[in-house]
Amino acid sequence: MKTNCTVLVIATMIVTACGGNNTDSNVVSPGDEKSAKSKTLETGADLLQGKNPLRYINTYLDGFHFYNGNMDAQMEAHHYVSQLNEDLYQAIIYDGNGKDAKIMGVEYIISEELFKTLDEEEKKLWHSHHYEVKSGTLVAPGIPIAAEHELMEILVSTYGKTIHAWHTDQGRALPVGAPMIMMGFTKDGQLNPDLVKARDERFDISTEERRKNRENIQMPTVDPMANSWEKGIYRQFVIGQEVDSASHKH
Q1: Is the Cα torsion angle 144, 149, 150, 156 positive or negative in sign?
Q2: Are 217 and 152 in contact (CB under 8 A)?
């Protein structure tokens, strides 16, 4: 996978300073205001406890997902990403970028090289990022366009496995219901343009300009087992009474 430490350094330096705090959460959750005791404990913990994994979340990506098996159910997704090595990233996904944003789920992002090592059934759970990058719909708010372009050169050939557990896009004020496997868009005409327009207005960006800027990014050859929904093959979680992962390794 292409090495580009410069992009990640730039992202680390800049993403915390701009490109955020302009998107409210989809829901207001029930519950009492924090008590004075809770606030005191929170402040003490913040000062005394280490949060090392969070220190390495250094890149912010904004894009769009849909529920595997239901393309009409679409939402914006705010990814806060840490890079584990040159071929593996992990992201916490929020429904906004303010202090009350809700964690919707997670996404694991792997290189083309690692994706090739997966078995055929596992690949059906993953989506490609080629269209998200080339269309300009995946953005890294706040970093210079040149740096974003270099980052997208890396991401264009990657694959993501995304799971949402809190469906705030459906107005659910609490994380109820089954977790769901999410997918990414693969061609024009799939993504609701109103979602893109609203996002662009909030960030004062142009997806169309991003698309033009990325015309020189080479389109990868997408593994035919990714984006299996395009072939009518769907995989989704179902809550049942039979024990699986708790007693057996996959």
Answers
A1: positive
A2: yes
